[in-house]
């Protein structure tokens, strides 16, 4: 066994097994303390453990090491904080259906106080969770042969790193922040998000995965915001996607799930506003990985507008209240279209999270990234 250098936690509902961390919860609610170690019996755990061991010996794992090596002369992270929020499976139609009464906080972020749009786009190649989230944190498209990150799977069974999928070194918002002296944290509700720590084990300082427990990850984030907020926090809320697959997109259950996520997002906003050390230097960046077709239980048809249209917004300290395309005339509002990657100008895409977040933190864009590589997406 190899000891982890930083806090990690994974807890599933019922008696599902943890990968590692501090607690395991049984169906009866009984908890027992576990050592902070990784068992080498699991391939995914082995990948993380080997990377950590090689790093400790000063040897380069081709999947991680050079992407996390501090670069000489790189900018130092400023005193701001970024909270990137991805609402998994959020179809913007839900905001219109629920209105300000049902989604007051999402309306505050996207329409009433922040700089936002409900007409951003996913990645062109796929409209599924893990590939699009990997684009969010790397600033790359999906297709590896075109310089993308290569993550085309959407479960936790594949144990590759992003670097192995791409066939080259791939940096991330986590490595960018670390190279600039900042700290990072992930709070996610799907086990597949172990990909991030597996790929950048030295750059994800805290990794909290509470499977299907959205309230739990928000609680963990709020606790950290109140004590030691990370420079960059990534919050994944998966309830709308989970319910969409079960009951259908835009169903009554789906809309209730979106409303519940709105309340959780409101708790994060309230914490930021109530904390003097956060209020004047924190920005929320909000988007989604994909939408979902009303009346269906899937979102894999990449050419359907209900799948590829997503929100994108900034809210918080210094953010200008405006429609995001009006603030960025060099981006083209796509309407009902699905512009290709060669179109000029481009629409705003969910893959801009990484370089937009680094820009807010005063850090250079990620090398070889595609989306917002000039850090010219204006938010103030």
What does this protein look like?
- The protein has 380 residues and is α/β, with parallel strands linked by helices.
- The protein has a single domain, classed as Alkaline Phosphatase, subunit A (3-Layer(aba) Sandwich).
- The protein is built from 14 helices and 13 strands.
- It has helices at residues 43-57, 93-102, 104-112, 129-138, 162-166, 173-179, 194-199, 214-227, 239-247, 252-274, 276-279, 305-308, 324-327, 353-360; strands spanning 2-3, 8-11, 23-25, 31-33, 37-38, 81-87, 115-121, 184-188, 206-210, 232-237, 282-287, 309-316, 322-323.
- The strands form three sheets. Strands 2-9-8-10-6-11-12-7-13 form a nine-stranded mixed sheet, sandwiched between helices.
- Strand 3 and strand 4 form a beta hairpin.
- Helix 2 (93-102) packs across helix 3 (104-112) and helix 9 packs antiparallel against helix 10.
- It is globular, with a radius of gyration of 19 Å.
- The N and C termini lie far apart (48 Å).
- The model is unreliable at 1-8 and 12-72 (pLDDT under 50).
- InterPro entries: Alkaline_phosphatase_core_sf, Phosphodiest/P_Trfase.
- One of its GO terms (molecular function) is hydrolase activity.
- It comes from Nocardioides albidus.
- This is Alkaline phosphatase family protein.
């Amino acid at each position: 066994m190899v000891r982890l250098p930083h806090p990690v936690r994974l807890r599933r509902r019922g008696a599902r097994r943890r990968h590692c961390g501090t607690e395991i919860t049984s169906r009866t609610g009984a908890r027992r303390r576990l050592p902070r170690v990784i068992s080498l019996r699991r391939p995914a755990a082995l990948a993380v453990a080997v990377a950590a061991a090689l790093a400790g010996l000063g040897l380069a794992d081709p999947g991680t090491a050079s992407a996390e090596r501090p670069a000489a002369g790189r900018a130092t992270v400023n005193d701001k904080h970024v909270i990137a929020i991805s609402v998994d499976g959020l179809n913007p139609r839900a905001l219109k259906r629920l209105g300000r009464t049902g989604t007051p906080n999402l309306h505050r972020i996207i329409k009433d106080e922040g700089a936002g749009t409900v007409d951003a786009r996913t990645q062109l190649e796929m409209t599924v969770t893990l590939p699009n989230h990997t684009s969010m944190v790397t600033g790359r498209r999906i297709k590896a042969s075109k310089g993308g990150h290569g993550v085309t799977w959407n479960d936790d069974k594949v144990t590759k790193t992003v670097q192995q999928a791409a066939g080259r070194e791939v940096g991330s918002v986590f490595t960018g922040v670390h190279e600039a002296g900042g700290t990072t944290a992930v709070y996610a509700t799907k086990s597949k998000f172990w990909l991030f720590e597996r790929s950048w084990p030295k750059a994800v300082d805290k990794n909290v995965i509470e499977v299907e427990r959205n309230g739990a990850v928000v609680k963990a984030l709020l606790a950290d915001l109140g004590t030691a907020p990370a420079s960059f926090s990534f919050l994944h809320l998966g309830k709308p996607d989970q319910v969409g697959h079960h009951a259908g997109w835009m169903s009554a259950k789906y809309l209730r799930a979106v409303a519940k996520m709105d309340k959780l997002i409101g708790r994060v906003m309230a914490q930021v506003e109530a904390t003097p050390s956060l209020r004047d230097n924190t920005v929320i960046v909000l988007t989604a990985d994909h939408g979902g077709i009303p009346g269906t239980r899937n979102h894999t048809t990449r050419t359907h507008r209900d799948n590829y249209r997503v929100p994108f917004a900034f809210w918080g300290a210094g953010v200008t209240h405006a429609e995001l395309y009006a603030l960025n005339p060099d981006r083209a509002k796509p309407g009902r279209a699905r512009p290709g990657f060669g179109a000029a100008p481009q629409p705003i895409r969910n893959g801009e999270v990484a370089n937009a977040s680094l820009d807010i933190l005063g850090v250079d864009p990620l090398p070889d990234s595609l989306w917002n590589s000039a850090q010219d997406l204006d938010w103030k």
